[in-house]
Amino acid sequence: MAKKKTPKPKANRSLNTDTPTTLNTKGPTTMSDDLPSVIEFSEDISDAEAPPPLPVQEYEANIRGVTQKTSATSGNSYAEISFHIDTDQFPADYDVENAPDGKTIVHRRVTLVDDRAGRYRLRLFMEAIGATPGRNVDLNDWIGLSARVLVAHSEYEGVTREEITKVTSLD
Predict the structure, then answer these.
(1) How much is the pTM?
(2) Cβ distance 114 to 77 under 8 Å?
(3) pLDDT digit string, tens, across residues 14-52
(4) Surface-to-core class of residue 120, CB atoms within 10 Å of its CB (0-12 exposed, 13-18 middle, 19+ buried)
């Protein structure tokens, strides 16, 4: 009786690149040859603490990135927007060393659903950031635009963090 041969895993191709990858059928993978497996930090991370969040207030923020996403719970489309707050917007009593390059806060509350309520809320958001609403919306056009954002606090896994609860025009 001939033994059945187990086929080798075939290389698959990522949607974003033509670099072949091999399916892993034997267990954990190792790191890439291009990246080191040992990373040295400037300080011992066993003592690392979360930086304090920005105080609750309004800040001027600039859009640095926008990505269309799909909600895992509702299946609805939304825009994931990276708002950046420069250090010159920090209150005088907030230590700039907590975020020397400013703070980027991701906002995930802009629906891209094509229904009456969704179109209305999107129009209001676009007007607040200074974008021109129309039948076709190019999310890339939002990059570089600015608005006033209300930063509030929420708790996630026991850590207080910033969240954007309102976006309004700079005018």
Answers:
(1) 0.76
(2) no
(3) 344 444 444 444 555 555 668 889 999 999 999 999 899
(4) exposed
Q: How far is CA 157 from CA 103, 133, 160, in A?
A: 20, 37, 8
What is the reported pLDDT for 8? 44
Do the beta carbons of residue 167 and residue 125 sit within 8 Å? yes
Comparison of pLDDT for 19 and 134, the residue scoring more: 134
Amino acid at 27: G
pLDDT digits (tens, 9 = 90+) for 67-101: 999 999 999 999 999 999 999 999 999 999 999 99
Q: In 3D, which of 168, 151, 159, 43 has the Cα closest to residue 97?
A: 43
Chain-centroid distance, C-alpha 111:
15
DSSP 14-65: -SS---EEE---SSPPPPPTTS-S----SS-GGG--PPPPPPSEEEEEEEEE
Tell me the HSE value of 106 on the side-chain side, using a 13 A CA sphere: 9
The Cα 110–Cα 95 span in angstroms is 31
Burial 32-53 (b: 16+ CB within 10 A, else e): eeeeeeeeeeeeeeeeeeeeeb
**What does the block give as tokens for 75?**
């299946």
